[in-house]
Design a protein that fits this description.
Length: 341
């Protein structure tokens, strides 16, 4: 059994010995020199690929994108480092397996790996998706801002209509207010005239009351006989004069009290009118201030909407440039994939 196995594996042992024969001291030195050349070529290839990727990214329109620019250079450098590691692994694999693969490595040094191109295209696709997501977010924000602007415009329009109605009502009620003010002024003048008449009547009555005892004594001193002759008639005349003077005094006092009550009522009505006028003026001022604030807010919202539209247009242009770059990279990627296949 062992003899049969040795006979079966004899050709393999012979081929292995043939492969082991060239590895003498000279072959070891040549292998070390090949390894040093391989490291130099791999470093040159890595630097060239990294520089080519960075230059292609800088020359592309995506480098000017403010959304992609802060993160794209780091991604490109990461991709370059990954491609360097892959190229180093691949080169070490080529040189570590067999000497016959040195030709394949030398033939492939000047080419760019298709996997690196596909990784670059994938990075472009990721950046494009991120920018599209940001554009969608900004579009939603712009729509929300537009809805707020429409609501503010509707509220401003409603407030303007209410203010116009209030001004029209104020204008329509202006003659009534003027007529009421005229009536109030006339009532105050009549009341002042009546108060003046009452004061004059009271002063005249007081003067008559004060002058009456002096007149009675003068008549008694001038005609004592007549006074002694008819004392009953004199008493009747004095009582009738007192009653006749007391009746106009009571009437005048009642009239004065009624006039005072009317004056108080008119003063209260005038004060109420003044308060209502003051309240209406304050309401009009508040509505005017609110209308001005809504106008300022609507102008600010219009400015924000215009800025959002401008930003949206800029992002749309950048997206179109990125789409053009991605569409231009697709044929190159397919060609590289076909070459790799």
């Amino acid at each position: 059994m062992m003899a049969q196995l040795q006979e079966q594996f004899a050709p393999a042992d012979a081929s292995a010995k043939k492969l082991q024969r060239p590895w003498s001291a000279h072959s070891v030195n040549s292998h070390m020199s090949l390894q040093s050349q391989e490291s130099q070529w791999s470093s040159q290839m890595e630097e060239g690929m990294a520089q080519q990727m960075v230059d292609s990214f800088v020359d592309s329109p995506m480098a000017s994108n403010p959304v992609v620019k802060p993160i794209a250079f780091s991604d490109v450098l990461e991709e370059a480092a990954a491609s360097e590691k892959e190229a180093r692994t691949e080169a070490s694999g080529y040189f570590g397996l067999a000497p016959g693969r040195e030709v394949a490595l030398k033939a492939g040094i000047g080419r760019v790996s298709p996997s690196n191109e596909s990784a670059y295209a994938c990075a472009l696709q990721e950046r494009l998706h991120k920018v599209q997501a940001e554009v969608e977010t900004q579009g939603a924000n712009a729509l929300e801002l537009r809805r707020k602007l429409d609501g503010a415009r509707a509220e401003a329009h409603t407030n303007q209509e209410e203010l116009a109605k209030l001004r029209a009502k104020w204008t329509d009620e202006q003659p009534q207010r003027e007529a009421l003010l005229r009536q109030t002024g006339e009532a105050e003048r009549r009341l002042a005239e009546q108060e003046r008449c009452c004061a004059e009547a009271l002063s005249a009555h007081a003067a008559a009351e004060l002058a009456r005892p002096g007149g009675g004594s003068l008549s008694s001193s001038s005609a004592p006989a007549a006074a002694h002759a008819g004392p009953g008639k004199e008493r009747q005349g004095s009582s009738s004069e007192k009653s006749s003077s007391q009746q106009p005094l009571g009437q005048q006092r009642q009239r004065l009290a009624s006039l005072e009550t009317l004056r108080l009522k008119l003063a209260e009505g005038l004060q109420e009118l003044r308060d209502a006028l003051r309240q209406e003026g304050s309401v009009i001022g508040q509505l005017g201030a609110r209308s001005e604030a809504l106008k300022k807010e609507s102008r600010a919202l219009q400015t924000g909407a215009e800025a959002a539209r401008g930003n949206e247009a800029r992002i749309r242009r950048k997206l179109e440039a990125l789409d053009a770059t991605a569409s231009a990279a697709h044929p190159r990627q397919h060609a590289l994939e076909r070459q790799a296949a």
